[in-house]
Amino acid sequence: MQIEARSSAATAIAPGAGPDLPGMTEAVRRALGPALAEKIGLVLIAGPPGSGRAATLRALARCRPDAFAAGELGSRRVAEEALAAARGRLVLATLEAADSIGAVGRLTAMRIEPFSLAFALRLVLAQRLVRRLCQSCREPVQPGNAVTAPLGLDPGGVVYEAGGCAACGGSGYAGPAAAFEALPVDATIGRLIVCGGEEAAIAGHAFRSWPNLAATARTLAVTGQITALEALRLIKDAQRQ
Ligand SMILES: [Zn+2]
């Protein structure tokens, strides 16, 4: 199947229309669509051990049959081979890193040539596993200030807790999901990578336009896909980076 149009890639990852990537917000989906519609370049899926990178790689490879899935970029040699392959086709790969900015830092630390990286890299998709609330029995609650403030909720705002019903076997949860952070590599980020890849500068530019992991966690909590406690855990994790 040929890649036909940018809109088709966006549709391919819409809920119910392609591989199931639960936990992906609309903003992340918007960033992913154009990057997958490019016929040439490298899309990286980054996350710590146990974050489900391989599952996301398989899901994305299924919706872009023309793309080449390179697997884990565990060494400089493999990373250089993936970059070379990305000169002629779309390459999907995974990398162990704390977040999307950290993935760029890891490749730079492997002494990957910055110009090659900036030229090839289209998108970094960072992810963390979360527990998805069962939508049939989740229970709305009004949390206190300790929860509303870090989540950016107005006082009186609603979040959700796990309930328990026949659909979820009484657990209150409907399986794992991933919280995503997208870093589309535009011309400015490409220049920052060539200039040394200073992490604060890349984050400062990228997350003005796109949600980072903490912002995604807030959205997932406010929309009732994960509990507030799960979101706070992700936010704390992101602040530790
Ligand atoms: Zn349930």
Please outline what is shown here.
With 241 residues, the protein is of the alpha/beta class. α6 packs antiparallel against α8, α8 (187-194) runs antiparallel to α9 and α10 runs antiparallel to α11 (228-240).
Unreliable sequence segments: 1-19
Structural class comes to alpha/beta
In the CATH scheme, the class would be Alpha Beta
| SSE pattern, N- to C-terminal | HHEHEHEHHEEHEEHHHH
What's the shape? globular
The strands making up the biggest β-sheet line up spatially as 2-3-1-4-7
- Domains, number: 1
- The fraction of residues in strands falls at 15-25%
State the helix count.
11
**Overall number of strands:** 7
Distance between the termini: 40 Å
- Describe the main β-sheet briefly: 5 strands, mixed
What is the percent of helical residues? 40-55%
